[in-house]
Design the sequence.
């Protein structure tokens, strides 16, 4: 089946520009979303990430992610702790344990210590946006496959969602090769199947 490359490129360009912030500044985007979520929760505790639960369960949700190493959830926990302290309110139990444990670890660490290198969360949002764009292109453009494989890529045969995105992403300053996009597609799909988050 012949793929309408022009239509696929038009759809891809539209998606990429709608996801621009997420693709170019994933940390800033995630931090803004976490802050907005936390601010909404502070204004109305019933709007927490676990709507059927209590505010303590909402904080426990952020703590669970922070304990898994999510730096944005850790910031949300610190923001919550600062709010509780400034308002003179006792910490919810999960947050109190997390903050106490974090302080104990900080005291034990030598100056300048800590792990170096990338966290598994560094590109999670960007990669998820890329995976979503590939998925949507595959499902909205008849006959378009997500990847075309190394052989066809080297021979420059055929077209895939990854090959189209590789041509369009540089327009917004995201430099990633077609092979890199294929790796993201395979990795994120695997992570989503294994997802340990609630």
Sequence:
């Amino acid at each position: 089946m012949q793929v309408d490359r022009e239509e696929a490129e038009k759809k891809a360009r539209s998606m990429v520009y709608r996801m621009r912030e997420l693709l170019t500044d994933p940390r800033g985007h995630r931090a803004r979303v976490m802050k907005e979520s936390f601010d909404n929760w502070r204004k109305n505790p019933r709007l927490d990430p676990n709507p059927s639960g209590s505010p303590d369960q909402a904080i426990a949700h952020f703590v669970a992610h922070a304990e898994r190493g999510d730096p944005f959830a850790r910031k949300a926990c610190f923001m919550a702790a600062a709010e509780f302290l400034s308002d003179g309110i006792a910490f919810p139990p999960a947050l109190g344990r997390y903050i106490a444990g974090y302080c104990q670890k900080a005291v034990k660490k030598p100056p300048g210590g800590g792990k170096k290198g990338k966290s598994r969360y560094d590109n999670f949002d960007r990669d998820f946006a890329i995976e979503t764009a590939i998925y949507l292109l595959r499902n909205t453009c008849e006959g378009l496959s997500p990847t075309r494989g190394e052989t066809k890529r080297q021979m420059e045969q055929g077209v895939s969602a990854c090959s189209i995105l590789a041509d369009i992403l540089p327009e917004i300053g995201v430099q990633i090769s077609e092979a890199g996009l294929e790796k993201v597609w395979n990795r994120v799909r695997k992570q989503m199947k294994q997802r340990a988050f609630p």
Residues 5-24+120-194 form one domain. Residues 26-43 form the longest helix (18 residues). The chain has ten helices and no strands.
